[in-house]
Design a protein that fits this description.
Length: about 240
């Protein structure tokens, strides 16, 4: 799997006649695995990891730097906290999630800025579990040019991380989108990844479910409700 993904990254960059890739380096498992694969495919000099804090936890930046040092990946830091604050000031008040969704969308603006500047592709870091369950921000972290781990469930990404020798602290940390202090993926979705992945794999394979019916129903609902996120905009045909 590792070799196939690395070959695929090389091919996509070559077909686009791009010079390399840029990605958001959050210090989380998915971004680190994606960056490691990109480095293996393109060489360190053709991979740029952007640290894009937005009132983020210090530990996330520390983990991102730990990874970048170990894998010798180039990084740049662009703190978008001030931009976010100014935007919140001019927008009407809204609930916490509405405001939080601004963060990944602002990060994507910066990623595409650097991609254009250097002639790179934006390399997304979403995994299959997130994509199927709709656990991503449309036109935020859901936007990219290529998605190397987009067909790997979270449990598969974790196995690949061990093979790539990603720092253990990053492998073990609770997955989070960093939307607010204490926020985690599993709390937000109401299910742990091993259970989510088992249900998703059985849905996709048309196999019998063994987990409680309530959990299966919840996951199916997540998949249905997020269908619009995985589709291109609907276009009226004349």
């Amino acid at each position: 799997m590792r070799k196939r993904i690395v070959f695929w990254i090389k091919k996509q960059v070559r077909l686009a006649k791009a010079k390399g890739v840029v990605l958001g380096l959050s210090g989380g498992l998915d971004s680190c695995v994606t960056a490691a694969l990109a480095k293996e495919a393109l060489g360190a000099k053709n991979v740029l990891g952007l640290l894009l804090p937005c009132h983020s936890q210090k530990q996330d930046s520390q983990d991102a730097r730990l990874f970048a040092r170990k894998f010798k990946i180039k990084t740049k830091v662009v703190d978008i906290s001030g931009v976010y604050d100014n935007l919140i000031k001019v927008l009407p008040s809204a609930d916490r999630m509405t405001q939080a969704n601004l963060r990944p969308r602002l990060r994507m603006i910066v990623l595409y800025y650097f991609a254009r500047k250097y002639g790179y592709l934006v390399c997304g870091t979403s995994n299959k579990s997130e994509l199927m369950a709709g656990y991503f921000t449309k036109f935020g972290d859901g936007a990219s040019d290529i998605l190397p781990i987009g067909d790997l469930l979270k449990t598969q990404v974790r196995k690949l991380a061990r093979e790539l020798k990603i720092p253990q602290a990053i492998i073990d940390k609770a997955p989070t989108a960093g939307l607010w202090p204490g926020q985690t993926d599993e709390k937000e979705m109401g299910i742990i990844y091993p259970e989510l992945d088992d249900i998703l794999a059985r849905i996709e394979g048309g196999r019998k479910q063994f987990l409680p019916a309530a959990k299966v129903s919840r996951v199916k609902q997540l998949v249905r409700r997020s269908e619009h996120k995985r589709c291109k905009p609907a276009v009226y045909k004349i």
